[in-house]
Request: fold
Amino acid sequence: AQKITQTQPGMFVQEKEAVTLDCTYDTSDPSYGLFWYKQPSSGEMIFLIYQGSYDQQNATEGRYSLNFQKARKSANLVISASQLGDSAMYFCAMREGGGSARQLTFGSGTQLTVLP
Amino acid sequence: GAVVSQHPSRVICKSGTSVKIECRSLDFQATTMFWYRQFPKQSLMLMATSNEGSKATYEQGVEKDKFLINHASLTLSTLTVTSAHPEDSSFYICSARGLAGVYNEQFFGPGTRLTVL
Reply:
């Protein structure tokens, strides 16, 4: 089974509007972390936001917020006031358990296009 | 955030040659480094995980004799693609993780685009 599922291969949003990128995950480990990364066409992976499984509040970083619904195992990314520069590939990722050697598992990504 | 560099950013080589890609953590000590490959329009697939001074742990299906990984210091890891073939053409991304940061997050390099002719 897929550990990270992103069901939206492509999304369009009008500039200045908000957009939600979906992510669901599957784990039996009670301790895990959820990450969102942005990958523009240049290829670099840009860290956006993190949510720990024990965090009581949804994470927020500027225009990015994470809608964490633990019971549904979803961790959707909300981008408010979209900008043209937000056009990129967005990946949801999970790291299970503790330990510094645990790797990230990535979803298939969502290509976001912001329209002027 | 912490900075990870990769060199070269782009390489074109002939089939049968070997290519070495360097990954450096510039301002922190990377106890663990990860190597990913990414085909166009696809996700990042983990190839191997390496801890400084230890042999790399390869993911299932990744040939360790073809993709040689060395993590000789806390700031440098190298990936050598031996006897490269056109099917090895891909985007290779390294990631470094130390004890820095609130989340022990992984910091990614800018990637290396390999084209094998």
